[in-house]
Design goal:
It is a single chain. By secondary structure, the protein is of the alpha/beta class. The protein has two domains: about 5-160 and about 315-349, Quinone Oxidoreductase, Chain A, domain 1 (Alpha-Beta Complex); about 160-290, NAD(P)-binding Rossmann-like Domain (Rossmann fold, 3-Layer(aba) Sandwich), CATH 3.40.50.720. It has ten helices and 17 strands. Helix 4 packs across helix 5 (about 185-200). The longest helix has 14 residues, at about 300-310. Bound molecules: NADP nicotinamide-adenine-dinucleotide phosphate and zinc ion (ZN). Zinc ion (ZN) binds next to loops.
Length: about 350
């Protein structure tokens, strides 16, 4: 039997988010039901709520950086009990049998990963609803443990902003002796700087916002470059091992590619609505690589959370009540967020 839970939803691409009763399945034997405490606000929530990726089904309840308290468990659940703190990120299910799932890369499930929102809900029909909500039901295998020493509100955005930056930095083996660039100081970018610094790299922050310079240094950048300044950009030509691009809007990737060394890699995680243009010679002449990366699998997400627990890494956040969500979207679009909004879901009660 499905139940309903208080939520906020977009009813169309042009409407503000508003109160909505979301339908959830009652926990199955392998499910965990979580009373949500906090949910981070990712730029993907805005892209999706406003149909900028041209695939949104309405109503859409966004939110994929969730932390809460377990309120019910199915009888086959092994690793969670009522009262435990639990986290849920962008993924809530996958086929479990394809080669990607077997390699712990559920985000690349060949059948189709089930995302926390805007994916088919195979048990009760309709679409999945995300974390701008009082409660959620998720199969145990996709529920994460939050290290006890971390502040829960500040840890919530690790579930997307954290893993999305941790995973590519690990995959391209960023570490000591390397020069690494992070492009865009927003929710993802500020975590990219923290992780690249924690892994021992020399970190350069590229920002379009001169007023974020001091913050970038505090977050762990060794140098800050205002990317609109061509002369300052040119000083770094051919010097980077790796660049992570987190920009959410139209921008010129050709300004960054020449900054890579021979055989260096630039990885895109930002997902702007419109296609980006590429000058092939920027890759060809120094056999540089341009790559992409999508969040991370569940095993790596847990590894990232444990790393954050060990090194006391959380996100820099501004807490908001759910009633301020539309203002928060406007502020994110103006790059006016330091550096992640987190919804205090007590405001839904
Ligand atoms: P965000 O907090 O809005 O940060 C994006 C940053 O990009 C801004 O703070 C700004 O940094 C820079 N920026 C914005 N507009 C720009 C423009 N026109 N030109 C140049 N720079 C600009 O967003 P977020 O939550 O970090 O998400 C970033 C992107 O990653 C989004 O597209 C999101 O959908 C995507 N995403 C992808 C994945 C994945 O798995 N691949 C996961 C999560 C999110 P400065 O002020 O420093 O310039
Ligand atoms: Zn996200």
């Amino acid at each position: 039997m499905p139940y309903t839970t208080k939520s906020y939803a977009a009813q169309s691409a042009s409407q503000a988010l508003a109160p909505f009763q979301a339908k959830r399945r009652d926990p199955l034997d392998t499910d965990v039901q979580i009373d949500l405490l906090y949910c981070g606000v990712c730029h993907s929530d805005i892209h999706q709520a406003r149909n900028e990726w041209h695939n949104t089904t309405y109503p859409c309840v966004p939110g994929h950086e969730m932390i809460g308290k377990v309120s019910k468990v199915g009888k086959k659940v092994k690793n969670f009990k009522v009262g435990d703190i639990a986290g849920v990120g962008c993924l809530v299910d996958s086929c479990g049998t394809c080669s990607s799932c077997k390699e712990n890369l559920e985000q690349h499930c060949e059948k189709s990963p089930i995302f926390s929102y805007n994916s088919p809900e195979k048990h009760i029909g309709g679409m999945t609803f995300g974390g701008y909500s009082q409660s959620i039901v998720v199969t145990e295998d996709f529920v994460l443990k939050i290290p006890k020493n971390l502040d829960l509100a500040a840890a919530a955005p690790l579930l997307c902003a954290g893993i999305t930056t941790y995973s590519p930095l690990r995959r391209w083996k960023v570490g000591k002796g390397q020069k690494v660039g992070i492009v865009g100081l927003g929710g993802l970018g500020h975590m990219g700087v923290k992780f690249a610094n924690a892994f021992g790299a020399h970190v350069v922050m590229f920002t379009t916002s001169p007023n974020k310079k001091a913050d970038a240094k505090k977050l762990g950048a060794h140098e800050v470059v205002i990317s609109k300044n061509e002369k300052d950009m040119a000083k770094h030509t051919g010097t980077f091992d790796f660049i992570l691009d987190t920009v959410s809007a139209q921008h010129d990737i050709n300004a960054y590619l020449p900054l890579l060394k021979r055989s260096g890699t630039m990885t895109l995680v930002g997902a702007p609505e419109k296609p980006l243009s590429l000058v092939s010679f920027n890759l060809i002449m120094q056999r540089r690589h341009l790559a992409g990366s999508l969040i991370g699998g569940i095993k790596e997400t847990q590894e990232m959370l444990d790393f954050c627990g060990k090194h006391n890494i959380v996100c820099d956040i501004e807490k908001i009540p759910i009633q301020k969500i539309n203002d928060a979207y406007d502020r994110i679009l103006k790059s006016d967020v330091k550096y992640r909004f987190v919804i205090d879901l007590a405001s839904l009660k």
